[in-house]
Amino acid sequence: MTTSHTPKKSLGQNFLHDASYIERIVQAIDPRPGDRVVEIGPGQGALTLPLLRRHGALTVIEFDRDLVGPLAEMAAPVGQLEIIHRDVLQVDLAALAAGGKIKLAGNLPYNISSPILFHALDHAAAITDMVFMLQKEVVDRMGAGPGSKVYGRLSVMLQAYCQVQPLFVVPPGAFRPAPKVDSAVVRLVPRDPATIHIADRDRFAHVVRAAFGQRRKTLRNALRDVCSPEQFEAAGVSADDRAEQVDVAGFVRLANA
Ligand code: SAM
């Protein structure tokens, strides 16, 4: 693509230009024959074109009108590119899967990476796997376990529904313009719904949010309006613990109780 496009900070536009990292990400996405691949935020096509060369067909969701025309032009001689010009948060990913499943990928706009992750979780049943690049700090939080300083709501919510596999770090110099922070690539594999055992997703989300909303407090205080002593007892979770000490299974039991 021409370099005349001025990157928009408000849309988290840091474009990848390092060929070796591009190749590693495409290998991590690893589209197989028959896969329906959807890329979020194709930008100037850094991942899009190699994916299209390898896979032949691809759907992309891009919010920046200025990038849509050049993307279509660039892709035309290479393969079949469907461009959805919308805010990804407004796109029904399950509908894109059309009864099947999609493989989701993207170098995400960092300013809305958490909302995109939660949006994808809402459609996890229609997704085989996701390979995303995000700020390294966010990937650290996604994969953290109890006792870690960065274990929090994002860790519990993602790990409850997906396996989280951090893959590799990408330095700022791989992008133009260079972001201020390191990035990292992560794979998320949605768990089989039969193994999740969350009775009510909204209630689970509410308990986790309330517990980490006041993470310095004991659960007895943080969840004062949410869980009774009997419910702590039934869940086998100590009300004297703080949220950061409770594992994902503990939150599931607490929400179910
Ligand atoms: N994939 C390209 C790359 O690796 O060079 C661009 C990645 S850039 C970090 C993020 C991309 O997401 C930009 O192209 C930006 O315009 C797009 N984007 C930002 N907000 C979006 C939204 N709400 N919905 C869809 N795309 C969005």
Automatic annotation (TrEMBL):
Classification via SMART domains: rADc
Molecular functions per Gene Ontology: 16S rRNA (adenine(1518)-N(6)/adenine(1519)-N(6))-dimethyltransferase activity; RNA binding
Enzyme Commission code(s) on record: 2.1.1.182
Record Pfam families: RrnaAD
Substrates-to-products reaction catalysed: adenosine(1518)/adenosine(1519) in 16S rRNA + 4 S-adenosyl-L-methionine = N(6)-dimethyladenosine(1518)/N(6)-dimethyladenosine(1519) in 16S rRNA + 4 S-adenosyl-L-homocysteine + 4 H(+)
Keyword Cell wall biogenesis/degradation assigned: no
Leader peptide range in chain numbering: none
Domain of life the protein comes from: Bacteria
Listed InterPro entries: KsgA/Erm, rRNA_Ade_diMease-like_C, rRNA_Ade_Mease_Trfase_CS, rRNA_Ade_methylase_Trfase_N, rRNA_adenine_dimethylase, SAM-dependent_MTases_sf
Keyword tags: Cytoplasm, Methyltransferase, RNA-binding, rRNA processing, S-adenosyl-L-methionine, Transferase
Keyword Transcription in annotation: no
A single cellular component GO annotation: cytosol
Domain Ribosomal RNA adenine methylase transferase N-terminal: 21-192
Subcellular location: Cytoplasm
Residues reported in the UniProt entry to bind S-adenosyl-L-methionine: 14, 16, 41, 62, 87, 107
Family according to the record: Belongs to the class I-like SAM-binding methyltransferase superfamily. rRNA adenine N(6)-methyltransferase family. RsmA subfamily.
NCBIfam families tied to this protein: ksgA
Role this protein plays: Specifically dimethylates two adjacent adenosines (A1518 and A1519) in the loop of a conserved hairpin near the 3'-end of 16S rRNA in the 30S particle. May play a critical role in biogenesis of 30S subunits.
Name of the featured protein: Ribosomal RNA small subunit methyltransferase A
Organism listed in the record: Pseudoxanthomonas suwonensis (strain 11-1)
